[in-house]
Write a structure and sequence with these properties.
Blueprint (H helix, E strand, L loop, with lengths): L24 H14 L1 H8 L1 H8 L3 H29 L1 H20 L4 H10 L1 H18 L2 H23 L1 H9 L1 H22 L19 H30 L5 H26 L8 H18 L6 H27 L5 H30 L1 H25 L7
Helix pairs in contact: 1-7, 1-8, 1-10, 2-8, 4-5, 4-6, 4-7, 4-15, 5-6, 5-7, 5-10, 7-8, 7-15, 8-12, 8-14, 9-10, 11-12, 11-14, 11-15, 11-16, 12-14, 13-14, 13-16, 14-15, 15-16
């Protein structure tokens, strides 16, 4: 069915993925929940890592490889996941995302050793790859243009909420029933979420990916956002991985205080993703934000380096990383929704996500090698350089401020 570009069609969403249905609060909560579950297996391993190391005899090196395995698999699978979402529809893919998350968590709960653990985390890369393409297509189909930016920010905050759940409720549950019982409880919750998704998501249209739109190449700005996300992911992943260790080893913080640094970063990231995405929904603002937020992240990384001489600055830096760097990823998704050609939101979302996941796989090993050789000061300067390069990549977006389908 032909519709005027930028208008809401009557029988299908503007991306042709699902039958049109008005987006409500329950659908927004479901999308946020799906994003939280999409990366929960990695957060669970991080939060329960000491228990895994103690019981299974897994080395710290192998535990670190789980991040590379998970994000590496997600980066490699993202292009295929995007095409799959465009072809079969976001409803089927979101249900599959939640069921695969349940399977990955159940496998982690039953893991006997290193090989199965890495296999389980790699399986968890599939939900990661599906998450942004599927949720973005639901937003295009079910929400009017003036609400999409706000809903995108809310659902992107689900990733940070997943980190909170792994770090507090599941950790407390593990203290009572054991880490395997806690992980199995999370797996059961993911399966229940899949049933909920099957109940409330609008039906997929069989012709979702049919037609000439599938041959339309991704916009140049989408490729720019993918490179931007690669550099941004390198820096964010380095901070996420080493911030608590930095606080404990170099700043003399207690383990509880060092862990609180990560919690502060996460809470700031939730607020930043919701707030900046709302700003991005205003006319002419979205294109300017990636460069500006990445520039703010440069300042955050420099504050981390300065904390070596003034310890309290590390808390300001944690808030700044969440408010600027973590938030920039949500704004990228707002831009993808605006610029994607009809029928291409899944593939374009996957392209940008692949860049972000690749950064998460590559950034921490580079940072760790540099810190081992030279110390944390040069390491944080490397993160600042990555954020500065991301900002430079995004400057043409700010200068052109070109409109997408919603413009």
């Amino acid at each position: 069915m032909l519709v005027k570009r930028g208008k809401e069609p009557e029988a299908a969403g503007p991306d042709g993925g699902t039958a049109r249905a008005p987006g409500g609060r329950s659908l927004t909560v479901l999308l946020t929940t799906a994003m939280a579950f999409s990366m929960l297996q990695l957060f669970v391993i991080g939060a329960l890592g000491p228990r895994l190391v103690g019981e299974l005899g897994i080395s710290r090196t192998v535990l670190g490889l789980t991040t590379t395995a998970g994000f590496g698999a997600a980066a490699l699978l993202s292009p295929m996941a995007g095409r799959l979402v465009d072809r079969v529809g976001p409803r089927r893919c979101l249900i599959a995302l939640l069921l695969l998350t349940a399977a990955s968590l159940a496998l982690i709960g039953a893991v006997p050793g290193t090989g199965v653990l890495l296999l389980a985390v790699a399986l968890g890369g599939v939900p990661q790859a599906l998450a942004n393409p599927a949720t973005n297509k639901v937003i295009l189909a079910a929400f009017p243009a003036d609400r999409r930016a706000a809903v995108t920010g809310l659902k992107q905050s689900g990733v940070q909420f997943g980190a909170f759940v792994a770090g507090l409720p599941l950790s407390l549950l593990a203290a009572g029933v054991g880490w395997r019982g806690a992980v199995w409880a999370a797996a059961g919750t993911a399966a229940l979420a899949a049933l909920w998704a099957a109940r409330i998501l609008p039906a997929d249209r069989p012709s979702a990916a049919a037609g000439p739109s599938a041959a339309v190449p991704s916009p140049r700005d989408t490729w720019r956002l993918a490179v931007f996300s690669l550099l941004l992911g390198c820096g964010i992943a380095s901070v996420n991985t080493y911030l608590a260790l930095f606080g404990s080893q170099r700043l003399g913080l207690t383990p509880t205080a060092a862990a609180a640094l990560v919690a502060v970063l996460g809470v700031a990231g939730i607020g930043g993703r919701v707030g900046w995405s709302r700003v991005a929904g205003r006319p002419g603002r979205a294109e300017a934000l990636p460069a500006l937020l990445a520039a703010g992240a440069v300042g955050a990384a420099l504050l981390l380096a300065a904390a070596l001489r003034a310890q309290p600055l590390v808390w300001v830096a944690a808030v700044a990383v969440g408010s600027f760097a973590v938030s920039a990823n949500a704004v990228s998704m707002v831009l993808v929704l605006r610029k994607a050609a009809p029928g291409r939101a899944g593939k374009d979302s996957a392209l940008v996500s692949a860049g972000f996941f690749a950064g998460f796989a590559v950034g921490p090993p580079l940072f760790g090698a540099l810190v081992s050789a030279t110390g944390y000061g040069p390491g944080w300067l490397l993160v600042a350089a990555e954020f500065a390069a991301a900002s430079a990549i995004a400057v043409p977006l700010m200068l052109r401020r070109t409109g997408g389908p919603d413009a």
